[in-house]
Amino acid sequence: xxxxxxxxxxxxxxxxxxxxxxxxxxxxxxxxxxxxxxxxxxxxxxxxxxxxxxxxxxxxxxxxxxxxxxxxxxxxxxxxxxxxxxxxxxxxxxxxxxxxxxxxxxxxxxxxxxxxxxxxxxxxxxxxxxxxxxxxxxxxxxxxxxxxxxxxxxxxxxxxxxxxxxxxxxxxxxxxxxxxxxxxxxxxxxxxxxxxxxxxxxxxxxxxxxxxxxx
Length: 215
What we know:
2 domains, alpha/beta, Rossmann fold
């Protein structure tokens, strides 16, 4: 298998609630390269089996699994980054260009907010998104078009004080700076595509829809 084939469907399993929705579970099942944050490793091994790599500061994985999987454990003791960031950086070191994160939400709310907010940091180096049990978070740093379906619920979280315009949403935003996170929430797609026009960083959330396929 070539390196491009090996890294064609990379999934990071973070240490939030283990996925229960069929969509993130299908990404785990179809992945050809899975990286576990060390806090997620115990549950992943018990439920699924052996990942390709386990990354983190090593304080959450059981001693039994440290002994069993020592050859794939990559310890990073940098306390300035969390385990999810360590896993993303590990993937970058492998030359990986596209990542799907699962298990990044649930459990502690501060971890959930931190993991979602970090997506705009990762997008500077890699194509990334986060699949939860309810929808998909996608960071952007420029104008971007999204595939959608009529009636899909969409929320926009602006990170920078940059004006934003939307096309194809029921409640349009026209060259407006969203100062507060709630101002771009609870919108809705009008059809098969919508577009966010901005020069800033933002995170777009799309709720799963029966007629929408996550590719």
